[in-house]
Amino acid sequence: MTDGALSHIKVLDLSRVLAGPWCAQILGDLGADVIKVENPDGGDDTRGWGPPFMPDENGGQGDAAYYLCANRNKRSIAVNLREPEGQEIVRRLAAQSDVVIENYKTGALKRFGLDYETLKARNPSIVYCSVTGFGQTGPNAHLPGYDFLIQAMGGLMSVTGQDEPVKVGVPIVDLFTGVYAAGAVMAALIARDQGKGGQYIDMALFDVQAAMLANQACNYLVGGKVPGRMGNRHPNIVPYQDFPTSDGRIAVAVGADRQFRAFAGVMGRAEWADDPRYARNAGRVEYREELCGEIAAIMRTRSTADWRTALEQAGIPCGPIQGLDSVFAEPQALARELAFTMDVTGSGAATLVASPMRLSATPPRYTNAPPRFAEHTAEVLQERLGLSQNDVRSFQKLGIVA
To answer: What is the rounded CA–CA span in Å between residue 130 and residue 67?
Structure first.
């Protein structure tokens, strides 16, 4: 892609699983040339995290859907980092790259000569982003970090669920870390282009989890009270939860007093808007149980579709609780083209989720489907390093690349 916002940027992605690859995919969607470096023994773990799997060209098992979600707009090469020749290949690629992303354990790449200081010596303008569970400093810096562990340790599960703690249904800490990392990388590139040189980025899932707690964390730090689990209710806004209807449930988000006045009218309880208990949000929070009990009783008298129509006409944010089949069938999802297809080498068309970034002049493009394992090793080594086909074949025979 030559017209993307980051089409002038070269990224070397040494990461695997989700947080790092998610960051690299965001950069790739915006036009960066992303080289995904995998180990020769099967590559990224998520290739096997299924079912479901894409079929391969022989009708067998291809890559898992999990892998496909985070690896488009990349080229895959496989390099053995335990071999000195493999390490040198990566160092040479890094020397001509703008960004390196890695999510090895703290300090692990130093023994391979692939740490920031070593790569910076060859390429002072490099932006080097490390993604770990707990960061490069502190007593837990040496520990591995996984999304579920961080959701537990980082407080998210303490405010999620009802009677029992529950993790979020997607690896949200990994995803948020990838998004924060992409933002940090782009900020570092801007700083570099302003003459401030390259720099090191230390991203930690634990730090991101704390930042994600947002209003809950601030409620605690300001108010001193440890928040608990409230199910689908909101700690600071009422009514802001789901309610049972005659045939299902509907989520209602009344975020302003003027919205509540309109909501009360739809409920047939216009007097609520002038009731001193309910007229202001602080009162509604204080009298949450009484108000929401009345709302629930009324909501049960009509269907979800009826309530959705009535509430939307009154300007009240609301919506049904939907499965993914309904999500992607929504007229809004169809209009926004949230799903699209790409042809995966050897597997055929795969349906993927579109990027949510909508830029008017340099929108995301989908030029490369998630690559098959080591699909581009020869191409990249010849293009970037000037190796011949015989050189590549020799490295393959020696187990240095795949």
So the answer is: 20
